[in-house]
Specification:
The protein has about 190 residues and is of the alpha/beta class. The chain is built from six helices and ten strands, in the order ββαβαααββαβαββββ.
Length: about 190
């Protein structure tokens, strides 16, 4: 059975996955919605392999293993630390966060290999340049996109530079009280 590769990202109403200068603080507002918090905790409790680019990896590795993360969100922090992680980077020499495999090779070739091997499904978090490269190569099977009710005006799209647009089919949606909407697309 082929391993599945998914993307799970939040975007602003105007389509940015990060704001100007990489700002992600907007994605963590409206956390007073119990349904949303339960969804985030439940989502983090699933298995799989987390996939990152260097910038997202460094941001995640700088927070989730910390005492603050364990105090603020012990369920998500515990799972983020426990899960297997893959970081793609040509610049990094060593990955310090537990359970992390560093891959310096060609991302498209490496993901093709990973998808053909037995193992848990993989999910990309953040990592816009990886999402765009793997979208262009037709290697992403599912896009789980949270639309956040905010307009940023400036930022980065996770699809910058994509020239080979995949054909997508909407599998389901879910609306949360805080205004976030999950849109789940699979490649057709």
């Amino acid at each position: 059975m082929k391993r599945k590769l998914s993307v799970f990202n939040q975007i602003s109403l105007d389509g940015y996955f990060c704001g100007e200068n990489g700002d992600l603080s907007w994605a963590h507002k409206h956390s007073d919605d119990k349904e949303w918090n339960d969804f985030v905790s439940g989502n983090a409790s699933g298995g799989g392999v987390l996939v990152f680019g260097r910038i997202t990896y460094e941001m995640m590795a700088g927070y989730w293993p910390s005492k603050l993360a364990m105090e603020n969100d012990p369920i998500v922090a515990g799972q983020m630390n426990k899960l297997q992680k893959i970081v793609f980077s040509k610049k990094m020499k060593k990955a310090e966060w537990q359970n992390t495999l560093l891959i310096n090779g060609n991302i498209v070739d490496e993901v093709k290999k990973l998808k053909s091997m037995p193992g848990d499904d993989m999910v990309i978090l953040g990592s816009g340049s990886i999402v765009s490269q793997l979208t262009d190569a037709g290697l992403i099977d599912e896009y789980q996109i949270i639309i956040n009710p905010i307009v940023l005006g400036k930022g980065r799209s996770m699809f910058e530079g994509v020239t080979n647009s995949p054909k997508l089919s909407l599998r389901d949606t879910r609306q949360f009280k805080n205004g976030n909407i999950l849109m789940n697309y699979v490649t057709a």
